[in-house]
Amino acid sequence: MRIVERVTLKNELGLHARAAAKIVKVSDKYQSRIVFERDGMQADGSSILDILVLACPKGSSLTMEVDGVDARKAIDELCELIENKFGEM
Amino acid sequence: MDTEELRETVVLTGIGVSPGIVCGKAYVLSRQEVRVPQYVLSSKAHVPDEVKRFHKALEDSEKELSDIKKKLKDLEGIGPMFIDINIMLLRDKVFIKKTEKNLEEENINAEWALKKTIEGYRAIFEGMADEYLRGRIKDVEDVAQRILRNLSGKKHEKISDIDEEVIIIAKDLSPADTAQMSEEKILGFAIDMGGKTSHTAIIAKSIEIPAVVGLERITSEIATNDTIIVDGNSGVVIINPSPDILKRYENKKRHFLTREEDLLKDAHLSATTKDNYSIHIGANIEFIEEIPSAVIHGANGVGLYRTEFIYVNKKRLPTEEEHFSNYKCVIEGEGIEWATIRTFDFGGDKFMSDPRLAEEINPAMGLRAIRLCLREVELFRVQLKAILRASVYGRMGIMFPMISGVEELRAAKKIVEEVKAELRSEGVPANDNIEIGIMIEVPSAVMMAENLAEEVDFFSIGTNDLIQYALAIDRVNERVSYLYRPLHPAILKLIKHVVDAGHNAGIKVNMCGEMAGDTLCTMVLIGFELDGLSMTPLAIPRVKRIIRESTLEESKKLLQKVMTFSVASDIEEYVETYMRKRFPEYLQANND
Fold first, then answer.
1. Which residue ranges in chain A fall short of pLDDT 70?
2. How many CB atoms lie within 10 A of CB B181?
3. Cα separation of B87 and B575, whole Å?
4. Cβ atoms within 10 Å of B79's Cβ, excluding its own
5. Mean pLDDT confidence for B416-420
6. pLDDT exceeds cutoff 50 at B591
7. Which residue of B has its CA nearest to A16?
C-alpha cells in the first residue's frame, strides 16, 4: 500500500532536533518505507540527519510518502505527531 | 604582597544562557581536537577492515553515550533526550552509508571518509536560513568528534571523573558533557564557543546550573584553580575577583532563588505603598551587560553605576571615548529612564601603571575615591567630560564618592564647572543642568549634611562604607565582621539625620548600599521616607513587593518603635520578628 499525504508544521520551532528525533522513533516502528519531501528534496524518515537537512521552519508544508504493509498505521501516527506539535508546549 | 593578590582581575562578557550566580574554583577541561590522520589505503583489500574499524568506533561511541545516559536514568528531561539524539545520529544510516561510500570509492581511511561526510553536512547546514537549524551542525560535529576519538583509541577526560566542586571552563562542551553535570559536583560553566540556541545552553537551563557561553577567550585567560564568578543572568564572568567584588557577588547570589520566575511576573509594577508613597527603584550595576536583567527585575533606572571597571582590564588608562560610550550605553539602555554615574571610586592600588600610588596599609581610609580624583585631576576631567557629553542622551546625574566635607565637594564642583566651560567653548553638546549629588558614606558628611545639602541636588547613602566607618569595622576582617550591623541604633540615627537634612533643604535622599536590597530592612527604610533605593538587580522584585504590600504609616510606626531601643540586637530581633510575621515568604533570602 502506498499513501501520500500533505502536512503543514504548526509547532513553533519547525522540524528541530527533538521533533526530528520523534519522527525517526515513529518511522523505526514500521516496516513501510517513509519518505518526506519538501521543495523537491527527499528525506528518509528513519534518518535524523536527512530530516534536519530538509530545514523545515514553522509553517512549512511537506509531503509524506509511505509505502508498505503498515502504511496506514504509520501515516496516522505521523500525522498525529505533527498535529500535536510534537508534544511541544 | 603574595602571589595570590598579584593575579589580575579579568572581566569577560559573553551570553548568559542559564540564570544564577556561582563563585568557585575553575577547572579547565582540556579537550584538544583529535588530530585526524588522513591517508589513502595501500590496497583496496584493506577496505573491509577499514569499514570494520569505523563500525567499531560507532559501537564504542554508542556505548559511551549509553553509559552516560544510564547514569542519568533517574533524571527526567532534556539531558537524556539529547543523548538519545546523539545516539540517533550515530546510528543514522544515511550518515553511515555516506561515510562507507567515501571510504570505498576513494579508497581512504575511516577518519578521512568521516571528515568528508561531515564537511558535506557542514556545507548544507551553513546554507540554512533558520538560525536554530543552522546551529544543529554542532550536534553532528560533537558526534563526529566522539567517533574520531574512538577511531584514534584515545580516552576522553570525563566530567564524571571530577570529584570536587568546580566551575567548568572549556573551549566548547557537547550536550553529552553538559548532561553529565546534573549529577556531578559542577557548579556552573563558562565556555568560549556557543550561542543562545545551542543544545548545551538548553540543557544547562534545564538542569539549572548557571552558564555563560560565547566568551571567545576564557580558556586563554584562566587556569585551573583560579577563582571565578559566573553570572548566568548578565553573561558576565570575573576571573580572580578582588575581595570587594567577591563580597558583592556573594550578596547577589543570596538574592537569587529558584522562585525567580514567579517573582518576575509583577517586578515591573511600581514601588508604591498602599497609602500611595512611591519610591524610585534603581539598580546598582557595574557592567552594561547587566542592564537587561536589571530591567527585567523591575529597575527603571540605574541608581549606581560603578565606573571602576572601565579602568580594569586595560594596560593603559581609558580614553574619553571609552568612558563616553559606556555612559551612553547605560542611559540608552532599553527600559532605563535615568542613571546616576558615580565617579571612580578606587584606591591608588588599582593603578598598576603608576608606581607613585603604591600599596597602602589601610586602603579603605587611604588615597581613594574623591581624594584621588582631586589629586589626579586629569583623570577626573576625562571622566567628567564623558559623563557631561553622555548626559544629553537622557536623565543623568553625577555622584561623587567619599565626600567628607564641603571643601571637597566645592573642589569637585569647580572642576565640573571648568569642564562644562571647556565643552561649551569647543561647541560640544553637554547638559549644563546635570544633577550633581554625593554619596553619604563618611560619618563627617553625615554631621555636615545640612551644609552639604545646600550645594547638591541629591544625596545617596552608601551604607556599606558608612557602617564600616561609623562602627569602625573592617568588613573584610572576619574577626570583626560580626560587628557589622545595619540595624545598629547609631546607624539608624545617622540615616535619620541625613534624610531630615536633605528633605529640609528640599533635595532627594536615596540609598544605594546593600541595606537598600535587604528585605529585612525594607519597611524600616520606607519609614525613613527615603526617595529612592538602589540595589543589586536580583533583590528588586522582593523589595518592591514588600513596598507594595505595606503602608508608609505602618513603616513609620515600626521605625519610631525601634528607634527607641538602644541595643542593636533588640532592634534586630524586633524587626526580624515583625518582618517574618508580616512577609514570611520574602525573607528567605536572608536565611543563609
1. 89
2. 24
3. 57
4. 26
5. 96
6. no
7. B133
Q: Select from B256, B212, B209 the least CA-distant residue to B536.
A: B256
Taking an 8 Å cut-off on Cβ atoms, the answer to whether B93 and A46 are in contact is yes
CB contact under 8 A, B133 and A55: yes
pTM as predicted = 0.69
Tens digit of each residue's pLDDT (9 = 90 or more) over B73-127: 655 566 678 888 899 999 999 999 999 999 999 999 999 999 999 999 999 999 9
Chain B hits for A24, CB-CB cut-off 8 Å, are: 88
What band does B34 get if pLDDT is binned at 50, 70 and 90? Answer: low
Inter-chain CB proximity A21 and B88 less than 8 Å? yes
Contacts A18 to B, Cβ<8 Å: 81, 85
Q: Is A12 a catalytic residue?
A: no
> Could you give the maximum distance between any two Cα atoms of chain A, in Å?
34
Per CB-CB distance under 8 Å, the chain B contacts of A55 are 128-130, 133
pLDDT in tens, B384-393: 999 999 999 9
Domain span holding position A60: 2-87
A-B C-beta contacts closer than 8 Å: 52
Does the beta-carbon distance from B133 to A52 stay under 8 Å?
A: yes
Q: Identify the closest residue of chain B to A25 by CA–CA distance.
A: B88
pLDDT of residue B355: 45
- Rounded CA-CA distance B330/B321 in Å is 14
Q: Could you tell me which residues are beta bridge partners of residue A36?
A: A43, A64
Calculate how close chain A gets to B128, using CA atoms only, in Å. Answer: 7
DSSP-derived 3-state class of residue B267 = coil
Question: Using CB atoms and an 8 Å cut-off, which of residues 60-79 of chain A contact chain B?
Answer: none
Contact call for A49 and B94, based on CB within 8 A: yes
- B585-590's contacts with Cβ under 8 Å and 24+ in sequence apart are B586/B519, B586/B542, B586/B545, B586/B546, B587/B519, B587/B520, B588/B257, B589/B254, B589/B255, B589/B257, B589/B519, B589/B539, B589/B542, B590/B254, B590/B518, B590/B519, B590/B520
The residues of B annotated with a catalytic role in the active site are: 199, 512
What are the b/e assignments for B406-417, b being 16+ CB within 10 Å?
A: eebbeebbebbe
Q: Of residues B573 and B131, which shows the higher confidence score?
A: B573
CATH of the domain at A10: 3.30.1340.10
Q: What is the mean pLDDT of residues B351-356?
A: 49
Write down the mean pLDDT value for chain B. 88
Q: Which chain A residues in 17-56 lie under 8 Å from chain B, judged by CB atoms? A: 17-18, 21, 24, 44, 46-50, 52-53, 55
Which one is predicted more confidently, B277 or B347? B277
What is the percentage of chain B residues whose pLDDT exceeds 70? 91
**Which of residues B519 and B361 earns the better pLDDT score?**
B519
Q: Please state the domain count of chain A.
A: 1
CB contact under 8 A, A53 and B132: no
